Fold this protein.
Amino acid sequence: MAQPKNPEKHCTYIPPESEKKSSKPMYDTPMLDQLVDGPWPSFVSGLKRLAMNNNMMVDLMGQLEHSYNTRLGYWKGGTVSIFGYGGGIIPRFTELMGDDGEPMFPEAREFHTVRVMPPAGMHYSTDLIRKFSSTWQKYGSGMIAFHGQSGDIMFIGTDTDNIQGFFDEVNEYGFDLGGAGPAVRTSMSCVGAARCEHSCTNEQKVQRLLVNNFLDDMHRPALPYKFKFKVSGCSNDCVNSIQRADMAIIGTWRDDMKVDQGEVKAFIKSKSRKYVIDNIISRCPTNALSLNDDDTLSVDNRNCVRCMHCINVMTKALSPGDDRGVTVLMGGKRTLKIGDTMGTVIVPFMKLESDEDYDALKEIAENTIDFWAENALEHERCGEMIDRIGLVNFLEGIEIDVDPNMINHPRISSYVRMDTWDEEVDKWNQRKAAV
Amino acid sequence: MTEKAKPRTPIESGVPDGMQYMHPVYLKNFGNWKYHDRPRPGVLHHVAKSGDEVWTVRVGTHRQLGPYEIDLLCDIVDKYADGFVRFTIRSNMEVSVTDESKVAPLIQAFNDAGYPVGGTGNSITMISHTQGWLHCDIPATDAAGVVKSLMDELHDEFISEQMPNRVHITTSCCQINCGGQGDIAINIQHTKPPKINHDLVANACERPSVVARCPVAAIRPAIVNGKPSLEIDEKKCICCGACFPPCPPMQINDPEHSKLAVWVGGKNSNARSKPMFHKLVAAGIPNNPPRWIEAKDVVMQILHAYKKDARDWERMGDWVERIGWPRFFELTELPFTKFHVDTWRGARHTLNASTHIRF
């Protein structure tokens, strides 16, 4: 790698020994040192700079190097909280003891993380980031992760005595703890309306509406297991909500997508007709696109599934329609315990414009969490419960009617008792008549 | 010590409003953007209906930032941009400017400080990052080290846009898979049942919850050496490690037998195809710090085949759907074994019940 122009203002910079503020000598870390070089900024250089500042990070590096040698982790959980809350802190105590039964790296014997919810959309001013940094240097190791996989700012590395002081300070300037344990968890929304033309809803508003309605369930963990909301402005789903959220809210539209035929022609001119046929027309999952002889585009909007592909490719020519709203899916999660589940469509479309619309969304979330809290087994995610009891029982529990948009195809198995068929047909007819 | 003051009651303020920390041009044009393009790798250019334009520079970071990096990066943002930052879910920083002439000096400043600009469009963006040995209580491997090693290797693919479509790589230090679905996922796969410290189980574990946690009902209560403990039917055990978090005396992590596995074709977006789960392609890879070279080699093999064979806009999973799994194993030269055939619930739906076979 080329020598930096200004080595003191570079991610590889390690201050000279004369500037060392920590009183403990550094450990030899030959394993970690092999991660210093290379073109990607090194977290090890970061750890070394922190270890120049405080003894906790000197010992943290000692323990981490030990893990690299033994290929084992050495943290155990525990119970640490701030006054008034039951969650939001991830306590860590070292299990790495010397022959005398004392911690081998005593300054890092406690190394807790504080989860703090970032501003919706993860927008920051540099002033705010510097403020976090200065508060965390006062109460902790100085190391901050932007962000954890659930979307928390993770203030990593402090002891039990400093947790309350840190929280009080950030809480005074407008920040609150995130979720941990069997609780409503920290949420994420995509950049959305702030800087994306694909956005079909006010992602930040939805995120804040839902999470801030369940703060009691976030701060005092008493649910069967975790519950996550995620909000994406379109089906590109940049916050991975279908696979990672118990309740995914995704922006969509139901009128025709907008086509600027002049821009279509300009795109074809710049890229070639073959490019457009190979990369747009033939990639439409429902064959809803057709290129006309005059290089204009026909769209079969009734069959468009709002997948976003053609809009992603021709960003100037194509855009979502005006009659916008959201699709709600529920039950996404990763492996444990029954295997991966994706979210299932629960609400194919709902408007989110008036206060009543937002209240309706809030009510769906409330009904879902109430029903799940009442009916789930311990440590059972919402999607696992749906799998166990069946989608129909879940829908009845949250008072939502069945809809063919919820399935890939109707049942294959004839092993079902259907003696109330006529009543169900009546319900369908009544719903149709009501629309 | 002085007497403790009355504890302060928290202000349950919840998620803060993002608007107060947002770039003014985002705020002004909120919900009114018209289109975007990418003038060069690492830069997004958005145009609002009002005619306002904004250029956003995306910067790779090592996620865990200390005061030095925070000052270094914030100084650049204050001096060369407008003082606002947004983070993507993959720990990239996005820094916006409303004056096109500021883009090049901003990029130069980040590069001069050693930070790569890229991760946009059809590049390989930052690997989704978990905690690993640094902070997790159940990790079989590290996160930051694996990410650093791979990103060193993928640096050129981060700063350019040469892949068929975007590539999202994830890593996870246990089978819970906090890294999530990815075009390529590098996850721990344990290969031996947990080793139980029977002296500790009774005091450390709520035994019925541990029994309930097992996906294959392989754990049952037992009295061992006169103490209440748990035992495992090792023939049934799938070595998933689900019992370890609620019962740390059931140690699943093993320096030798906790291996890495590579999974391919996960996709969160709905573009073209519906979202997809990643599928197992390679396992038995040693968990080998500090640089995990064997895992890196498998990843590079897969990326090489994808880059060469996939069509524009095909995500890894789209590509494999088109060419078929036999061709995937042929092109990547990865061995196909009996372990690739699923045995979990719904496995039948993963079998080829047709004569659709490519020759």
Remarks:
- Chain A has a mean pLDDT of 97.
